[in-house]
Structure formats: C-alpha cells, structure tokens
Amino acid sequence: MGSDFSIDLNLKNLPARSSVGRVQGSPHPVEGEKPQKTLGDPLPKRADLADLPHRLRQAFSYEGILRKVERKLNALTGERYEIVPAAGDRVCIDEKGKVFVGVEFVAENVSQEALLAGVLAHEWGHFPTRSKLPRDLSHLTWEEVYRLRRGEETKADMFCGRALFMLGYPCEPMIQYLKAHEDPKNKTSKYHSVASRIKIIRATHASQSKRDAMAWNLKPSDDVYADPIHGSRIIGS
Ligand SMILES: [Zn+2]
To answer: Ligand 1 mean position to 94 CA, how many Å?
Structure first.
C-alpha cells in the first residue's frame, strides 16, 4: 500500500486518471471492485539508470543537478528525502519521502535548474513524513477527499514559492511551465486551477522576499549587540 500517500504534482494538469484511487496493480476496474480513496495516484515504476543516456545518468548522479537540489531542500527542511529515477514523466513523493522523478520529465527539462528546483520543492512541500492525515479515508465522500487533496496541493505550492526564494531561484520558470501545460478543457476537482496555483507560488515567493528584507533591515549592528553570549551590553549591563 505504498502508494496511499503519494501525491502527484500533476504538472500537466492532467484529468483524473482512470487509475486514480485504485490499488496499484489493478489498472482495469474489476466489476464490483470499490475504488480505494487515497490522496494520490499509484507510484510510477523505478527506472534503471544504466538504460539512460549519459546526460540523464549525470543529472541523477551525486554531482548532478537533481541531487544538488535534493541536498539543498534537505538542508532547508531538515528532512532526508531521496530522489529516485522513475519511468514516465511524472514527479511525485511517497509517504516515506522517496521522490520519484520521471526520466522523461528530466530529459525535457534537464537544463532548466530553476524549474527542476520548483518541481522538487513542491514535492518536498508535501512533507509526507510529517503528515497527520488519517490513513483511512473511506468514511469521507469523494468531494471531501478531493478537498483534502486540494488543501495538500496548496500547502505544497506555498512551500514551493518560499523555498525557491530561499534557495535563490526565480519562480517564473515554474510558472511558465504550469501555464504551458495547462489544458483548460481538462479540469479536475483534484487540483486547483493553474491560475490559482500561479497566484499562490508568486505570492509566497514575494512574501518570503519581503520577510527576508525586513529581517535584514532589523538586523542589529554589531556595535549595539556585541558578542551575543559573552558581551551583550543589553543583557549584561
Ligand atoms: Zn503535489
């Protein structure tokens, strides 16, 4: 049941997949089978790095761009989430903090560091290891499950905007990507619209920048506070 808490980034704003909410391994509905209510889609299969072209293997290596962003996000959050190369073009995180990164997605965007950082920051922002959500959602209606899910996505986008600023990345590449992959004909109640996602990412990126600027302005000068432990004039005198 490893897929219970996987939460798909759904960068391409895809419609509800036919497999959504069904237990992994049963891609076609069996008559009488009840779809399982979960917050995420089934996890993708792992990809074998040996099968990939050099530049993709490089992206997943210790010195590669993906692992570099992984280390930054772990340093920022205190988590130890881990990137796993996966088949396909999806990016999602499981309940233990394994971040499945689709090799097709990487192939398309390997040179766009700020976009990769945004996508990964969104996944970190799900904080699955801190989740207090109930495992059993069967007592909820589908609308309630989707509402929970939209709430989770919003929190992840809020973290994404803040983290991008804190790591020194612009949020525009992520926003442009969301816009470019929006399909207005395929709206789903599982996700907020691309327009509201963009609003959230922009607003949190900007508010983090203001917060940092304020902290910088308030930073006391050394001659007032001196050494905070041994020589504080305020506490010591
Ligand atoms: Zn997500």
So the answer is: 11
Q: Which amino acid is residue 85, in one-letter code?
A: P
Residue 36 CA to ligand 1 center (angstroms) comes to 19
Calculate the alpha carbon distances from 183 to 14, 17, 180, 193, 216 in Å: 8, 14, 9, 10, 41
For residue 92, how far is its CA from the centre of ligand 1 (angstroms)? Answer: 7
pLDDT digit string, tens, across residues 79-135 = 999 999 999 999 999 999 999 999 999 999 999 999 999 999 999 999 999 988 777
Contact partners, residue 231, CB within 8 Å, separation at least 6: none
Residue 98 C-alpha to ligand 1 middle, in angstroms?
13
Provide the b/e sequence for 158-177 (b: ≥16 CB within 10 Å). bbbbbbbbbbebebebbbeb
CA distances to 12, 30, 55, 229 from 123, in Å: 15, 32, 23, 39
Contact in structure between 118 and 160 (CB atoms under 8 Å): yes
Amino acid in the structure at residue 120: L
Distances, alpha carbon 193 to alpha carbons 139, 155, 189, 237, in Å: 27, 14, 9, 57
Statement: residue 5 has pLDDT above 50: no
Q: Would you state the structure tokens that stand for residue 6, as one six-digit string?
A: 């996987």
